[in-house]
Automatic annotation (TrEMBL), chain A:
GO CC annotation, single: nucleolus
Biased composition (Basic residues): 545-561
InterPro entries, sorted: G_OBG (IPR031167), GTP-bd (IPR006073), NOG1 (IPR024926), NOG1_N (IPR041623), NOG1_Rossman_fold_dom (IPR010674), NOG_C (IPR012973), P-loop_NTPase (IPR027417)
SUPFAM superfamilies: P-loop containing nucleoside triphosphate hydrolases
Taxonomic lineage: Eukaryota, Viridiplantae, Streptophyta, Embryophyta, Tracheophyta
Record's protein name: Nucleolar GTP-binding protein 1
A Gene Ontology molecular function term of the record: GTP binding
Compartments, as annotated in UniProt: Nucleus, Nucleolus
Naturally occurring in which organism (per UniProt): Linum tenue
Region ranges (Disordered): 542-581, 594-635
From TrEMBL, chain B:
Region (Disordered): 23-44
Family note: Belongs to the eukaryotic ribosomal protein eS8 family. Ribosome biogenesis protein NSA2 subfamily.
Keywords: Nucleus, Ribonucleoprotein, Ribosome biogenesis, rRNA processing
Bilayer-crossing regions: none
Highest rank taxon of the organism: Eukaryota
Species this chain originates from: Linum tenue
Protein known as: Ribosome biogenesis protein NSA2 homolog
PANTHER family linked: RIBOSOME BIOGENESIS PROTEIN NSA2 HOMOLOG (PTHR12642)
Length: 635, 260
């Protein structure tokens, strides 16, 4: 009933590899240093440990292998026979036996030499004894080298055997070579078996799974059988014979009606009759394949007679063509049904059945009178149902897609749901470049509002005509250009000055960590300066960032810059096209980030980002002193 | 699930990866460099093992090359001159060659009479008494030191029973008693595991012979019935002498050479 898994067998190392593994383990995992001057008991113990350790490792590895390999008697007879057919049971057992003998020999060597080591009275003697012990163990292992190689070969092949569940319902496909067994398997299951026109394409058993009535069935494809006596069969045919004999399954015997497999119907019938006794009480179905080439009715008289003979020995005969798929499902259903029936029968006959049957009871109420009581559905429900049926489904985008050719052919128009002022604009194409600029950089949702504002301001400025002395003058083209240049440079200078003024370079702040007691105030500075004889007022005001000169400069710059459009002095969060901000919120976020960064830097009295001065490289509290608890070997 | 020869089947259906052969070729070409890197970088016992393996391969390669280089030209062949061959005009009439081949038994009898034996190991290192025996203290106060324990391999016969412990002077521990020896036949060059019948002579002295101590050079008698030797008279030989060739206490086994 078990699912056998031969993939779990550990890899079998070769003889030399096993020796290397064990000896290097001994060298790594036992102490390696011993001296002549050590007490003799210690020397003995040292070498005895090595001998024992080596023996344990050899024994462990060999035991693991011996236990991992399945014992031919203990497993299901199907697998037992399969192993015998493939690997020769005797050879297999001999190899495992040799491993066992080697294991015992190594144990005996260890016992002998540990006994001898007890009499070792010098380091040299103990060392020689240990060397002799390990050497003998390795010689034993070298001698079983061929067995280990054979077992590794077997293991690799075994891991690729199909895992057949011997208890599950199974369908077995057999017949002459090339009749269409593998193509049938490919049709029913998802197994992808090679199908080729030459005989013996399938060289071993293949398994596929199929479903029928909520139950999973195994379908096993076998290599073709030739009509030979059992002794003459080769290994490939023996595989299929093993499956036939040992597995309880529904057998599908494939018959090639057209003879295109290379074997006539009489030959196939002969094969059928010779393997008939292997079927025992398994349900047999005869599948007449390749009906597209030759139908059952079109057969000649003798062939028909042979087929009828075969039919008498089997349950059913079904014509099938695997190429045209005709009859494939019928065969599968018939076989599965037969197996299901068999199972149910068996279960009914089993001893447990009455207990199960007694547990439930289907009660049929006795009718108390002959009155007819049909189904009763309220009218409202009926109406609702009718309405639903009449209600038309909304046509979805998916339906439109399917109508117009499917996923790859039709692409949905995402624009048709746009909400625009004028519906004609939905399908307009927007230009992307104009005069070397990206059009999108200049798109401003508030553009109309801005235009209005600008017009308003300009009209306001025009009324206020007095301050525009410079504007009244007529400038030549070069003078105009120079003026622009001067204004630009002035603007830059002002910006730079503003930045400079706001950093700590020009306005040094004492960071809070050095000024915990808040002693560095402007009053203190004022007092100290006045004690020196200097007027502190300007300094105090400068420190308080309210300088007189700045005010003046601001006024002057303001008057000078009146000529410029007032719009250049925008509110802070306003998005200027060309700056690269998505919207006002993003710009505010950027401004806030910049401000936060400068604030932190100013508190540390750093001039800018690149100022990484450490005031004290080795503060005393970190580089000196004892610790109250703990060690001081790390600072 | 992959079944049977699924790898070959996949290759048959889909062919190889586009770069498969190139990768394979390059990997194989890199193997040489990797081998060299491993040989140079490995430390300790691993490095020594690699070096040993490489040396063996080098020697093998050199031999094959030399073999190939041997010229196929013909050389002058010198007729082997027999030792002691004398040209005809110098032959002395008196010397005669022995025509009869003496049988083995007669040879043995002659040797015995002469008292000289040809042995594989004519000279052996003498073993001192304090190396051979370990002093065991006995008595209530552990002051008596007359007991000795043998520290070398010994042979005691099958019917051996110890003397009462109070009186036995030489103790032969059972852990050091051996009954079998690995005997090599010098001509056949094969080794058999034969039973020891007795210790014939220990070169270190008659006391050791009587104790049955086997050290290097000891002549022992072994049971050769499994070799199936027959005398010319038709009798089966079942005992022969052999000389011990190793130090049994260091190796844990007795290796001997048969004296034919």
């Amino acid at each position: 009933m078990a699912q056998y898994d031969f993939k779990k067998i550990t890899v079998v190392p070769t003889g030399n590899d096993l020796i290397d593994i064990v000896l290097s383990r001994t060298q790594r995992q036992t102490p390696t240093v011993i001296h002549k001057g050590n007490a003799i008991s210690r020397v003995r113990q040292f070498y005895m440990r090595k001998v024992k350790f080596t023996e344990t490792n050899f024994t462990d590895k060999l035991s693991k292998t011996i236990e991992d390999f399945p014992r031919v008697e203990d497993i299901h007879p199907f697998y037992g026979d399969l192993l015998h057919v493939l690997y020769n049971k005797d050879h297999y057992k001999l190899a495992l036996g040799q491993l066992n003998t080697a294991r015992n020999l190594i144990k005996r060597i260890r016992e002998d030499y540990v006994k001898l080591l007890k009499y070792g009275d010098s380091l040299y003697r103990c060392k020689s004894l240990k060397r002799a012990a390990l050497g003998r163990m390795c010689t034993v292992t070298k001698r079983i080298g061929p067995s280990l190689a054979y077992l590794e070969h077997v293991r690799q092949h075994m891991a690729r055997l199909p895992s057949i569940n011997t208890g599950a319902p199974t369908i077995l496909i057999c017949g002459c070579p090339n009749v269409g067994k593998s193509s049938f398997l490919n049709k029913i299951t998802r197994a992808d078996v090679e199908v080729q026109p030459y005989a013996f394409t399938t060289k071993s058993l293949f398994v596929g799974h199929t479903d029928y009535k909520y139950l999973r069935y195994q379908v096993i494809d076998t290599p073709g059988l030739l009509d030979r006596p059992l002794e003459d069969r080769n290994i490939i045919e023996m595989c299929s014979v093993t499956a036939l004999v040992n597995l309880h399954a529904a057998i599908l015997f494939f018959l090639d009606l057209s003879g295109s497999c290379g074997y006539s119907i009489s030959q196939q019938a002969a094969l059928f009759h010779s393997i008939k006794m292997m079927f025992r009480n398994n349900p047999v179905l005869i599948v007449c394949n390749k009906t597209d080439l030759q139908t059952l009715e079109g057969l000649s008289g003798e062939d028909l007679k042979l087929v009828m003979e075969m039919k008498s020995a089997a349950l059913k005969t079904i014509p099938v063509s695997t190429i045209t798929d005709e009859g494939v499902m019928a065969v599968k259903n018939a076989a599965c049904q037969r197996l299901l029936d068999q199972r149910s029968e068996r279960k009914m006959k089993s001893k447990k059945m009455p207990t199960v049957l007694n547990r439930f009871h289907v009660a049929m109420p006795k009718p108390r009178d002959q009155k007819e009581r049909p189904v009763c559905i309220p009218q409202a429900v009926l109406e609702a149902r009718a309405e639903e049926a009449a209600h038309e489904e909304r046509k979805t985008e998916k339906d439109i897609e399917n109508e117009n050719g499917g996923a790859g052919v039709y692409s949905a128009s995402l624009r048709k749901h746009y909400i625009l002022a004028d519906d004609d604009w939905k399908l307009d194409i927007l230009p992307e470049f104009l005069d070397g600029h990206n059009v999108y950089d200049f798109i401003d949702p508030d553009i109309l509002q801005r235009v209005e504002e600008l017009e308003r301001e300009e009209s306001a400025v025009e009324e206020d005509g007095g301050d525009f002395e410079i504007e009244d003058e007529d400038f030549t083209a070069e003078a105009e250009k120079d003026l622009q240049e001067i204004r630009k440079r002035k603007k830059l200078l002002i910006q730079k000055h503003r930045i400079k003024k706001s950093t700590a370079e020009s306005r040094p702040t004492v960071p809070r960590k050095f000024d915990k007691d808040r002693k560095f105030t402007t009053e203190r500075m004022g007092r100290q300066l006045s004690s020196l004889g200097i007027d502190p007022s300007r300094a105090i005001e400068r420190a308080r960032s309210r300088s007189v000169s700045r005010k003046k400069l601001r006024l002057r710059s303001r008057s000078m810059s009146r000529s410029r459009s007032v719009l250049s002095q925008r509110p802070l969060g306003e998005v200027v096209p060309g700056e690269g901000f998505k919207d006002s919120a993003q710009k505010m976020k950027a401004v806030t980030m910049a401000r936060n960064a400068t604030k932190k830097r100013n508190k540390d009295a750093r001039r800018g980002e690149a100022d990484r001065v450490i005031p004290t490289l080795r503060p005393k509290h970190l580089f000196s002193g004892k610790r109250s608890i703990g060690k001081t070997d790390r600072r | 699930m992959p079944q049977g020869d699924y790898i070959e089947l996949h290759r048959k259906r889909h062919g190889y990866r586009l770069d498969h052969f190139e990768r394979k070729r390059k990997k194989e070409a890199r193997e040489v460099h990797k081998h060299s890197e491993r040989a140079q970088k490995s430390l300790g016992i691993k490095g020594k093992m690699i070096a040993k393996k490489n040396y063996k391969e080098k020697v093998q390669m050199k031999r094959t090359l030399k073999m190939h280089e041997e010229s196929s030209s013909r050389r002058k062949v010198d007729d082997e001159v027999q030792e002691g061959a004398v040209p005809a005009y110098l032959l002395d009439r008196e010397t005669t060659t022995r025509a009869k081949i003496l049988s083995n038994t007669i040879k043995q009898k002659r040797k015995e009479k002469a008292g000289k034996w040809e042995v594989p190991l004519p000279k052996v290192r003498p073993v001192a008494e304090d190396e051979m025996f370990k002093v065991l203290r006995s008595g209530k106060r552990k002051t008596k030191q007359w007991k000795r324990m043998v520290t070398k391999a010994t042979f005691v016969g099958p019917g051996f029973t110890r003397k009462p412990p109070k009186y036995e002077r030489f103790i032969r521990p059972s852990g050091l008693r051996f009954t079998k020896a690995h005997v090599t036949h010098p001509e056949l060059k094969c080794t058999f595991n034969l039973e020891i019948i007795g210790v014939k002579k220990n070169p270190n002295g008659p006391m050791y012979t009587s104790l049955g101590v086997m050290t290097k050079g000891t002549i022992i008698e072994v049971n050769v019935s499994e070799l199936g030797l027959v005398t010319p008279g038709g009798k089966v030989v079942w005992g022969k002498y052999a000389q011990v060739t190793n130090n049994p206490e260091n190796d844990g086994c007795i290796n001997a050479v048969l004296l034919v």
